[in-house]
């Protein structure tokens, strides 16, 4: 933001909210104004990604990364975190795969960190604030030595495993890089992600991407003036918290080839012995069965207009006059938007 502008009413942007502001301003909710936001509370999540992040944090804090012969300790930390959070690795979705990836990747991550030199110090989950630009963020890994600063973002998902990193991750890294330069007074010498699937990937990031920072200032000013257009796109909308009630999204989704949702009147809900429920949804273009839904309370939604999200189509669109077949995933959800 420009110098002299009264800052206390200006919302802070994290890399996540900044990415949302750039991709769909209507999706940005819950921005914090006033004093700098606090560091996020330590995660207590039990997904494979959350457990892996916590294990890496323990590995760094225990200084195990310094010694090549302690690379195996990363998997021990993973088990210790799972035990502390009272979950069995084998019972967590992708738990065993993540365990194997940690085992496979620990040595290359350790090597990367040790490149910083013998005098290097490593910090995990570092929260930095730039009060002038009202930007803040929590960095996964920061390694500092006389030779420079290494900024490493740890990733367990598919998004960072692609050969070209998505724009969302690149803008996150730009903001992290700016925060390090602004708060620590040294631009990072190495910026990139460490994907548990693919290993290290360095990206060329300038310490302060003035084009990006200027664009964020513009978008934030427009957002504050309630200029918040909805810009639907499959990857942007997938996990958006506003998705259930966002009409522009549901209109756009009708034309998406790989759409992952259906809406219409819920005609039936049949629960099998295994506890999973099949839903029959009808709309103006036909009907659809969504099988394998987890959860309860579906009967109460019969007769309602519902929107079912993050499901997979099993029959190609338009290939049959029968009801289209869809299957629920672990992240599927349903919302009622009226009778
Ligand atoms: S559902 Fe999509 S279009 Fe609607 S607010 Fe969210 S990201 Fe934007």
From TrEMBL:
Residue span, PD-(D/E)XK endonuclease-like domain: 13-246
InterPro entries: PDDEXK-like_dom_sf (IPR011604), PDDEXK_AddAB-type (IPR038726)
Transmembrane portions of the chain: none
Annotated keywords: ATP-binding, DNA damage, DNA repair, Helicase, Hydrolase, Nucleotide-binding
One GO biological process term: DNA repair
Skewed-composition ranges (Polar residues): 317-339
Top-rank taxon, per record: Bacteria
Molecular function GO terms recorded: helicase activity
Region named Disordered: 314-339
Name this protein carries in UniProt: PD-(D/E)XK nuclease superfamily protein
Species of origin: Geodermatophilus saharensis
Lineage, uppermost ranks: Bacteria, Bacillati, Actinomycetota, Actinomycetes, Geodermatophilales
């Amino acid at each position: 933001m420009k110098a002299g502008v009264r800052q206390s009413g200006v919302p802070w942007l994290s890399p996540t909210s900044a990415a949302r502001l750039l991709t769909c301003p209507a999706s940005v909710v819950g921005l914090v104004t006033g004093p700098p936001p606090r560091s996020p509370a330590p995660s207590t999540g039990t997904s494979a990604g959350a457990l892996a992040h916590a294990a890496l944090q323990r590995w760094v804090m225990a200084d195990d990364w310094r010694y090549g012969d302690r690379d195996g300790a990363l998997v021990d930390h993973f088990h210790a975190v799972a035990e502390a959070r009272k979950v069995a690795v084998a019972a967590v979705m992708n738990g065993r795969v993540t365990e194997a990836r940690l085992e496979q990747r620990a040595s290359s991550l350790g090597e990367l960190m040790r490149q910083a030199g013998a005098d290097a110090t490593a910090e995990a989950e570092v929260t930095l604030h730039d009060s002038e630009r009202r930007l803040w963020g929590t960095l996964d890994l920061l390694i500092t030595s006389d030779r420079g600063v290494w900024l490493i973002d740890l990733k367990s998902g598919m998004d960072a495993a692609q050969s070209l990193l998505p724009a969302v991750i690149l803008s996150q890294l730009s903001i992290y890089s700016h925060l390090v330069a602004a708060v620590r007074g040294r631009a990072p010498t190495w910026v990139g992600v460490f994907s548990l699937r693919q290993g290290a990937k360095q990206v060329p990031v300038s310490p302060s991407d003035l084009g990006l920072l200027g664009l964020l200032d513009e978008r934030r000013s427009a957002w504050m003036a309630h200029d918040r257009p909805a810009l639907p796109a499959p990857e942007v909308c997938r996990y958006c918290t506003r998705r259930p009630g966002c009409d522009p999204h549901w209109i756009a989704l009708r034309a998406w080839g790989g759409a992952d949702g259906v809406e219409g009147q819920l005609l039936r809900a049949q629960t099998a012995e295994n506890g999973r429920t099949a839903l029959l949804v009808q709309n103006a273009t036909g009907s659809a069965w969504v099988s394998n839904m987890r959860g309860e309370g579906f009967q109460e939604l019969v007769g309602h207009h519902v929107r079912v999200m993050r499901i997979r189509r099993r029959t190609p669109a338009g290939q049959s006059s029968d009801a289209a077949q869809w299957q629920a995933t672990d992240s599927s959800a349903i919302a009622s938007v009226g009778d």
